[in-house]
Amino acid sequence: MADGPIIFRRCFLIVLTLSVTLLCGCSGLDYDSNPLSISFSLGYSIDATTKAPINNVDDLDPIQILRADGSADFSTHTAPDFTGTVNASGIVTPSISQFYKLDGTTSYFLSFYPQAYTISSGVVNFRITGQEDVCASQAKQGSMYNNNTIAFAFQHLLSQVHFKVVAENAAAVAGWGTLTYITVNSPTSLDLDLTTPTDPLTANAVPMNVDLPSSIGGSASQTLTTTAVSAGTVMIPVGNYPPLQIKVKTSLISEKTVSTKLWYLGKGRVYTLRLTFDDNLTTITVTKE
After folding, report:
1. pTM of the predicted model, to two decimals?
2. Strand partners, 78
């Protein structure tokens, strides 16, 4: 009879041990074998009142997204891993559902807009026309153990110049005719270094300089009046200028090169220039507003 309780205790311990093992095993299975989906958002670092042509986050559509697992090294990328559709609330829907690795590896994500011309050796190259608002975010990270929303916070990487035009008087209106174009000579092949993605864009080794027209185009017929009105905008690289020079043509007067008072253009800044067409039909006076 003495062996009975011993046998019972042994059986109880075996069953208890087995139960604990199964419980732990099931808990691990539930955690490790079910991938955690990754959610994305776009932060509101964009000033919608000044940084046209991006006025709202859903104008950034689609955004381009790179992924790297284990380290924030994007040097081997030659294309985005997926894109993201952005709604008015800043929620990003990835074109391909994303999941964290089951072993807990940290995943890094870097995003930019618009679509790149090329991606190679850690450099994104853009080809601009003067009407693109190029933006990018620092790399964001997460893992299955730190499953926060990947929240991109875009920064503007170019400067915008906004032109206003006004005729000095009725004689100037008649003498100059209509405005044909305002252009700025600028590199159009610009590079983004993926190790410092929110630094200003730099001109490529082959910069491909072009006279970029403002948003009224290169063959407009905008009426000049004695009231200042917009003559479009142009997005150009950040940096020092000697100072910035523009070219202006009207229907009755041939192209003129005009010096502005802009010596430096800052990242994400908007500069407004008023062009006054004098009645001597030779002078265009530029003032910074």
Report:
1. 0.83
2. none
Please state the length of the chain: 289
Q: Identical fold at 40-156 and 159-188+205-288?
A: yes
Q: Which two tokens stand for residue 162?
A: 């906004």
**Cα(81)–Cα(68) distance, rounded to whole angstroms?**
9
Helix (H) or strand (E) holding 12: helix 3-32
**pLDDT tens digits, residue range 2-56?**
555 544 444 333 333 333 333 333 333 343 556 889 999 997 555 444 444 566 7
Class of domain 40-156: mainly beta
59 falls in which pLDDT band (50, 70, 90)? confident
Distance (Å, rounded) from C-alpha 174 to C-alpha 185? 28
Distance from C-alpha of 200 to C-alpha of 159, rounded to nearest angstrom: 9
| 145-148: Cβ within 8 A, 24+ apart | 145/104, 146/106, 147/36, 147/38, 147/100
Q: Using one digit for the tens of pLDDT, what is the confidence trace for 195-232?
A: 999 999 999 999 999 999 999 999 999 999 999 999 99
Identify the CATH assignment for 159-188+205-288 out of 3.60.15.10, 2.60.40.10, 1.10.260.40, 2.60.40.2630: 2.60.40.2630
Residue 131: exposure state from Cβ atoms within 10 A (0-12, 13-18, ≥19)? middle
Q: What's the rounded Cα separation, in Å, for the pair 96 and 31?
A: 23
Residue type, position 289, single letter: E
Coil, helix or strand for 138?
A: coil
